[in-house]
Specification:
By secondary structure, the protein is mainly α. It has 14 helices and 4 strands. It has a single domain (2-324), classed as Up-down Bundle (A middle domain of Talin 1). Helix 1 (2-31) runs antiparallel to helix 9 and helix 3 (50-61) crosses helix 9.
Length: 325
């Protein structure tokens, strides 16, 4: 019980640190005259994934690679099933813009690449790991994603619903000027570090107490906890009828997890694919693939029935995964 409470406390510090980091970085960007649209697409979108990044890097440094793998894949699954399903339950999600529609195939491609990279045992008869070469390839893919995103901003400007929503949504509440901006960034980074260290340490301890792998703890305890910023952002966006913003937050977070968080961890230390890891990746791939026909090939809406299906699917997956572990 103490280890679980330690994880909760660590995740709370991570979320608080991520929020302060986003606030400070946003104010610094505003001081340099960077538009709210660019801030929303970059700092805020990636800032909500900073808890996953810190947990994974510290996990890799401390040898808790199973926790690092489970955190990334678990966050991706919970975002696409739990977070997206909850947002659709609140209000049906209808995608109207083109930016997110182009990001969906990129997410599917990134998930496919991760899955193929994890098939070393089947394809080359050697232990399955996400190594440094795999990590470099994934990060190069992220550079392509950034290039496409920047081109979208330059070409579409206010013509796309996502870009319009981001530009009109207040990303921050301006506080005192000067050093306070940098103080927010520093305090945010400190909270992220201590929260990450506490989460990793107690996550390993909880896994030992329950007799399960650190991957399982990463998949369902740490991953769901670190997905709380995405859940909050998507629920607020859904309540405001900003469907593109709700879905864009989820897709952007998953792309960042797959193409930055995991490869950065893989550069620190090889990430072995744990037992059941291939199945977890396949589940993540299936969830991403299901969104393609809904939002890309038709102007369909993800309604409340589909949202309930996604949430129930996540609950069933969690029960089966924990039971088999």
């Amino acid at each position: 019980m103490t280890a679980f409470l330690g994880i909760v406390a660590g995740i709370a510090l991570l979320i608080a640190g991520g929020a302060l980091l986003v606030r400070g970085a946003s104010e610094i960007a505003d001081a340099f005259g960077i538009s709210p649209m660019v801030v929303g697409l970059t700092i805020v979108g990636f800032g909500t994934s900073s808890p996953e990044l810190v947990v994974n890097v510290l996990g890799a440094l401390n040898g808790a690679t199973g926790l690092a793998f489970g955190n990334v894949v678990g966050s991706n699954i919970s975002n696409l099933a739990l977070v997206l399903g909850a947002a659709a339950l609140m209000r049906p999600i209808a995608l109207q813009g083109d930016v997110v529609r182009r990001e969906l195939p990129l997410l599917l491609l990134a998930t496919t690449m991760m899955t193929v990279m994890a098939l070393d045992a089947s394809l080359e008869s050697k232990p399955s790991v996400i190594g440094r070469i795999d990590s470099v390839v994934l990060m190069l893919m992220f550079c392509i994603f950034i290039y496409i995103t920047v081109q979208d901003v330059r070409r579409l400007r206010q013509k796309d619903r996502l870009l319009t929503n981001i530009n009109e949504t207040p990303v921050l509440l301006m506080g005192e000027k000067g050093r306070l901006r940098w103080l927010l960034v520093v305090v945010g980074l400190v909270l992220l570090f201590f929260g990450g260290e506490m989460t990793v340490r107690n996550g390993v301890e909880l896994a030992a107490q329950l007799g399960v792998s650190t991957t399982v703890v990463g998949l369902f305890v740490v991953a769901v906890g670190t997905s709380m910023p995405e859940l909050a952002t998507s629920m607020v966006a859904a309540a405001r009828r900003e469907s593109d913003l709700a879905l864009g937050n989820i897709i952007g977070s998953n792309i960042f997890n797959s193409l930055v968080v995991l490869p950065v961890s893989g550069l620190v230390a090889h990430i072995p694919v744990p037992d059941g890891g291939i199945a977890d990746l396949v589940i993540s791939w299936v969830l991403a693939a299901l969104l393609i026909p809904v939002f890309v090939f038709a102007n369909a809406t993800l309604g409340r029935i589909a949202g309930a299906f996604l949430v129930c699917s996540y609950v069933i997956y969690a029960i089966v995964r924990i039971w088999t572990a």
